DNA sequence: TGCTCTCACTGGATCGATCCAATTGGCAAG
DNA sequence: CTTGCCAATTGGATCGATCCAGTGAGAGCA
């Protein structure tokens, strides 16, 4: 009653009156086994309550059907959705993810990868933390670790990548502001730069340059709610205040909006604010936040596709996928409408 | 260069001039090995770039140092934070979690658990999906699966549990409304009941009964943003409208607030609204949402503590932990203050 | 009948770390 | 000088699924 009987292939084989090898073939869906035998084996599996032992199978070289999913922080609606997309796609393929968070620490990231390697994961989906060295990425590849980078791509590294079309999206968002008459634009949330942020700033810069407008004022504040508020405060203290504040993500924008409001500025009237991400709160807040919908779920799915391809063919040519983003215009860039999409 | 040399204990042993058994002892920190030998072995490990193979170790009966973490949905700030708390606590203990989502489907849940069993997880942290049968939980226990339930506890099941003190919290929240003069109270988001929801409604009911007030009007709307809006619409259509709407969670409350606002009702003035969870948006929206802070991170940590204890001592007495919740009063229950905590 | 050929199935070796019983060398006590 | 003992180390068997080289039965054909 109490003890869990650890049933093995041998138990099933005995029960079905065949050999271990035959049971193994049936379990892996081999066509070499006669239909009648397959049936008998499957009945035996059910009868003895057999549970496949992936660990034992791994020792003979088959993959583990596991992958590591490393994000900087799971308590961030963006990464939570990315994780959901990746997890669903992996599930369909019969894989299951190990979850680990790096908290932006290269040391933690290295420890996590080490632990995942001990578990012989078939591959890794990684949002590289700050300070990740290209040599580190290369070292993993050399040791046979299949790896797809998401959201950020370590400069001078090689390999697969899936992320949002940051630059094109920010260009569209900036064009929108320019059409509304904005000329001086600030960018908030660039305290520490990574490839994704660099692309976003580059997009803003490109759009402004195309229209012969001055480069954006980059505020190097943290990419947090508090950082957004800090940026707003600094903005308010300026003699010639920019008329639009573009934030590196939605959360930063929420912080900025609250601080601006407390200083008596009308969002969308006295100053325009934009975000990136289109998290649920962006539609619900007042006024609604103009932002870029970046489809994190799709990025997670795409990363899985790339990783499974890489596992199947380790020497395939590296692929970089930039998923299209969608401009979502709401009240925070004017138009007087209180909320909701235009 | 290209091939990944799969180094084993034997390689390390050869390099250090000792036997496999000795290397194994060193790696597991046995005190039986002389200090000098330990040093030589550790140097050899580094020299050959050895990576421990947990799968092989598992075959000799040692645990896998993995656990399964099953939540209904990861793209829900509450479960994301719970996951973060659990993940951090597991990391400290040298464990790593498999992540799986059930999407409230008992069938998906069963499939996920099956897959986790194939991977020989040492234990399971589970937020049981709707329709989970107590017999299913009991069956797992019989087969030696160590399991801790979080947030919800399957009725008539046995085992460990960690969750918020729902009933006490809702009593406090209801008392707050009663102090403010509310007499007729509605509860939104009870389309499908689980133990957590039952406790919440029971808390409301208990506080009202204590004050000789009528039982709450339970609106059986879905526990989503849209469900909250639906509840608000139904509320507005009533002849004798309750003066307070208590929502089963913050997200439902946001939906309700938006719908009420669109119908010209002043939140906190014409009608009071409350949530549960205290997600970041609760502090940022206008007016701020009065809610219960439920400490999801702490629940995740606590679940890990219970699970590790259960793994260490499978026949310990079951423990149920209700983590204290904190009443956070903001503008949505009146007082005229626009935002922020009182 | 004798021969080849295919199909269905099988026994034994194997993966890499761990456990156990056994061995070695060194040292103190008798 | 032997004996006993302890600390340090080791070889071999083991866990459970998989791979491989086979075996045997039966069909097809001359």
From TrEMBL, chains A, B:
SMART domains for the chain: HTH_LACI (SM00354)
Q: Does the record carry Transcription as a key word?
A: yes
Q: Which InterPro entries match?
A: HTH_LacI, LacI/GalR-like_sensor, Lambda_DNA-bd_dom_sf, Peripla_BP_I
Q: Please provide, alphabetically and separated by semicolons, the GO molecular function terms listed in this UniProt record.
A: DNA-binding transcription factor activity; transcription cis-regulatory region binding
Pfam families per the UniProt record, alphabetical = LacI, Peripla_BP_3
Keyword Transmembrane set for record: no
Do you know which PROSITE patterns this protein is assigned to? HTH_LACI_1 (PS00356), HTH_LACI_2 (PS50932)
Residue ranges occupied by any HTH lacI-type domain in the UniProt entry? 7-61
Identify the keywords attached in UniProt to this record, alphabetized: DNA-binding, Repressor, Transcription, Transcription regulation
Q: What's this protein's name?
A: LacI family transcriptional regulator
């Amino acid at each position: 009653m109490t003890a869990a009987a650890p049933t093995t292939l041998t138990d099933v084989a005995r029960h079905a009156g065949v050999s271990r090898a035959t049971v193994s073939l049936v379990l892996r869906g081999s066509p070499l086994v006669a239909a009648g035998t397959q049936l008998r084996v499957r009945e035996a599996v059910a009868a003895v309550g057999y549970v496949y032992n992936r660990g034992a199978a791994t020792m003979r070289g088959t993959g583990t059907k596991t992958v590591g999913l490393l994000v900087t922080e799971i308590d961030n609606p963006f990464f939570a959705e990315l994780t959901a997309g990746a997890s669903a796609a992996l599930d369909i393929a019969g894989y299951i993810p190990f979850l680990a968070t790096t908290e932006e620490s290269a040391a933690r990231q290295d420890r996590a990868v080490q632990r995942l390697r001990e578990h012989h994961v078939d591959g890794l989906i990684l949002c590289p933390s700050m300070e990740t060295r290209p040599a580190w990425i290369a070292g993993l590849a050399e040791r046979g670790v299949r790896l797809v980078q998401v959201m950020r791509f370590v400069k001078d590294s090689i390999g697969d990548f899936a992320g949002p079309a940051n630059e094109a999206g920010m260009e569209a968002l900036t064009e929108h502001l320019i059409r509304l008459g904005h000329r001086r634009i600030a960018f908030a949330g660039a305290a520490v730069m990574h490839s994704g942020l660099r692309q976003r700033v580059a997009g803003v810069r490109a759009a402004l340059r195309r229209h012969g407008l001055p480069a954006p004022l980059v505020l190097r504040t943290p990419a947090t709610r508090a950082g957004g508020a800090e940026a707003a405060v600094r903005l308010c203290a300026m003699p010639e205040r920019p008329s639009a504040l573009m934030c590196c993500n939605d959360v930063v924008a929420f912080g900025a909006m609250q601080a601006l409001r407390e200083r008596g500025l009308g969002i969308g009237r006295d100053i325009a604010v934009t975000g990136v991400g289109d998290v649920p709160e962006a539609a619900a807040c007042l006024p609604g936040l103009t932002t870029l919908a970046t489809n994190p779920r799709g990025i997670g799915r795409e990363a899985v596709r790339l990783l499974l391809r890489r596992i199947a063919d380790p020497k395939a040519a590296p692929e970089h996928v930039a998923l299209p983003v969608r401009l979502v215009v709401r009240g925070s860039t004017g138009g007087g409408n209180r909320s909701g999409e235009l």
